[in-house]
Amino acid sequence: GAGVSQTPSNKVTEKGKYVELRCDPISGHTALYWYRQSLGQGPEFLIYFQGTGAADDSGLPNDRFFAVRPEGSVSTLKIQRTERGDSAVYLCASSLADTQYFGPGTRLTVL
Amino acid sequence: SQKIEQNSEALNIQEGKTATLTCNYTNYSPAYLQWYRQDPGRGPVFLLLIRENEKEKRKERLKVTFDTTLKQSLFHITASQPADSATYLCALDSYGGSQGNLIFGKGTKLSVKP
């Protein structure tokens, strides 16, 4: 079956711009996670959805970051007023139980 | 807060040998521990999960051990092959329960030479 997909695969933007990153989870998976991975580091948790609601958003670094999952399936991570430090690979994962299935990530570059 | 250390950034071994990767954590004992494989430009791929009441788990050439006294997990790849070359990530559940977010180590980059 289809895995987790993320679009775009690459996004280059200028400092101060707004970006949206999309995640399509595996069909039927109730839990959805966003992580951020910098070079040479492991993924770092941002936010976790159970259904439509954010069960844990403690990893969001500041109020420029926001995520939604309005129908309990697709999720969008939104970053306002991007900064160079936001450059990283943004990973999405979904799960039914303990195992998380990751997408290929979106590489965000803020110039 | 929970911290994870994977004690080698890189590990180079000869084809056919057993690779052993180490994951140590510092705080509470997690309900489970997972190992993922990550290839360049790709997302992590789940390999094995071991629960706190399990000492060892195997899957084909892979073996994971979990010692809650030492706060350590060992990940073994036997009869290693060049295709096993990748970064291996250790991950723990964040709150000692299921379906929460995972805390990842930095990973160990394994290179298997023919």
- Which percent bin holds the helix content of chain B? under 10%
Work out the oligomeric state of the chains in this entry: heterodimer
The chain-level structural class of chain B is mainly beta
| Rg result of chain A | 13 Å
The biggest beta sheet of chain B is recorded as: 6 strands, mixed
Q: Proportion of β residues of chain A?
A: over 45%
What separation lies between the terminal Cα atoms of chain A?
37 Å
Residues in helix, % of chain A: under 10%
Shape of chain B: globular
Number of strands of chain A: 11
SSE order of chain B, as H and E?
A: EEEEEEEEEEE
- Show unreliable segments of chain B: none
Give the distance, in angstroms, between the N- and C-terminal Cα atoms of chain B: 41 Å
- The number of helical elements of chain A comes to 0
Low-confidence stretches of chain A: none
**How much beta of chain B, percentage-wise?**
over 45%
* Envelope shape of chain A: globular
Topology:
The complex is a heterodimer of chains A (111) and B (114).
Chain A: E1 5-7, E2 10-13, E3 19-24, E4 31-37, E5 44-50, E6 53-56, E7 65-68, E8 75-79, E9 88-95, E10 101-102, E11 106-110
Parallel strand pairs in A: 2-11
Antiparallel strand pairs in A: 1-3, 3-8, 4-5, 4-9, 5-6, 7-8, 9-10, 9-11
Chain B: E1 4-6, E2 10-14, E3 19-25, E4 32-38, E5 45-51, E6 56-59, E7 62-67, E8 72-77, E9 86-93, E10 102-104, E11 108-113
Parallel strand pairs in B: 2-11
Antiparallel strand pairs in B: 1-3, 3-8, 4-5, 4-9, 6-7, 7-8, 9-10, 9-11
